[in-house]
Amino acid sequence: MDQSVMRGGYIGKRKRSPIWTFFTAVDETHACCNICKNKLSYETTVTNLTKHMMKKHPTVRLKELQRASCNIQVNEEAIDEPIPGPSRISTLEPENNALNPAYRLPSRDTIVNTLLPSIYEEVSHDVERACFTIKKACVTADYWTSVDNESFMAVTAHYLDEEFKMNSLLLEVSVFNIVRTIRNELRWPHLGCFAHNLNLIIKDALAEFSDLIEKVKTIVCHFKRSSLANSKLLECQVTAGKEAKEIIQDVPTRWNSTFHMIERFVELESFIRTTVALLDADLPHLTTKEWKTLQLLCKILKPFEDATTMASGENYITASLVIVVVNGLRDVCAVLLNSPDVLQDAFAKNTVTNLNHSLLNRLGNVENDKIRATSTFLDLRFKDVAFKNKLTAENVKWQLTNSVANMLNEGVDDQVDNNQAMDNSTDFQQLTLSLWDSFDRKVSEHKPKGTINSRALLEINRYLEEGIISRKLDPLLCCILYIIPSLV
C-alpha cells in the first residue's frame, strides 16, 4: 500500500530520497528548494534536484547525507515529545519508547558536512534578500579568541526598517582584519567600541586596589567552594529577618562583574563578618578602613557601571549616548573630588583623579567627533542641550542646515522636472478653455518666499523649539510621529 505524506499543502507519495531534506513538493512534478526558494521540475526522478544542489549550493555535501540516510529514520510520532536526559548530541542516549529503536543519530561528518551547510545556505539567502532592502547601515566588528588560541572576528550590520525598528544581520565570521579594510579600502569612518574603552578605563583605576580586591576574592572563593560556609552565611541572613543573598564571584574578562562582587560584598558586610568569625578557616582580615574604602569604591564606580550597561545595549541606538554619558561621568568625577569622604581617603582621591584623566586620554573631546555629535543633536532626548560647548552645538546645527538645504534643493529639482513633463504633455492635447487656466498659470509662476537655506534653517529651528522627550523613551519610535520629515 502506498504511503502518503503532506508537504506544503500537497499530499503525495512519501519521499524516501535524502535529497528531500532540502526540498518541499509543490505538486506531482514540481518542488521548492528550502534554501533559495526556487521552484524546480522533478517529474519521476530527483536528478534535477540533485544537480540544483550541486550547482547552487555546493557547500552541502550530499554524499555524506546519502551514506547516513539509512540511519536518519525517526519515529515521527515521538519527535514532538520531549526527550529526557542530557541535551548534548555526544551524550544523548535513546530511551525506551522515546525514539524508534532503529534510529541512530547522524554522524559528526553528516552534521558538519551536510546539515549545517544546508542551514548556512538557507540563512545566507535570507540575509542576501534582506540586504537589498537596506538603504544605510552601521557595521560593527567583534573580536574573540577560541580555546585553541585562534582569533576570530564577526561582522554585523545594524539598520532601521521602514517602521524604525532596530535590526541586525551577521554578515561574516573570519580572521580577516575588517578594521583595516574599512579604513583603507572602503574609506568608511571607524568608531572604536565605547564600552571597551570604558572597560579599559576602569581596569586602569582598579589596579591601585589590587591587594584589597585580592583579599575580597579570596573570601568570596572560600564561600563559593565551601557549602558549609555558604549555608551559614545564608542562615545568618535569614535569622536577622533579611532576604538570603549569595556572594557574587567576578569574571576576569568583565570589570563590571568585579563591581558587582564588591557591591554585594559590602551589602553583606555584617553577615560576612559574623560568619567568618564562626568559621575555622584561614581567611584574610579586612580592617574597618578597608571596609570603608570598599564602600567608597562602590560609590565611585556605580556611575561607570551604569554607563557600561547603557553602552552595551543591542536593541536601541547607543552612538548618541556617548557625549551625554562622557560629560555626565566627568561631572560625577568633579563632584566626587569635592566630596569630604573622598578627600579624606588617599586611595579614593587618586582613583577619581585617574578616572577623570583616563576619560580625557582614551576618549578625547567626544564633542569634536562629527558622527557622534550629529547623532546626539538629532536624538529627540538630547538635541543641543547635551553639549557643554555651545560653539560645537552651533557648528553641528549649521552642518545639518546645509544637509537639509541640499535635500530640499534636490526636491525642487525633481518638482521642476515633473512640471516640465506635465507642460510637454499638454502640448499634445487639444486647446480647451477652463476656469482654472489663469489660476494654474499664477501657481506655475509663483516662487516660494525665502531661499533654500532659510527654509532649511526654519526646519532646524522648529526641531529645536519642540520639547525634548523623556530620556526613557525610544527616540526611534518618536521619530515616526515627528512633524519635520526632512530630519526624519
UniProtKB/TrEMBL annotation:
Keywords: Metal-binding, Nucleus, Transcription, Transcription regulation, Zinc, Zinc-finger
Superkingdom, taxonomy of origin: Eukaryota
SUPFAM superfamilies given in the database record: beta-beta-alpha zinc fingers, Ribonuclease H-like
A Pfam short name: zf-BED
One GO CC term, this protein: nucleus
Domain spans labelled BED-type: 14-64
Protein localization: Nucleus
Molecular functions per Gene Ontology: DNA binding; zinc ion binding
A Gene Ontology BP annotation from the UniProt entry: post-embryonic development
Name listed for the protein in its UniProt record: Zinc finger BED domain-containing protein 4
Main location: nucleus
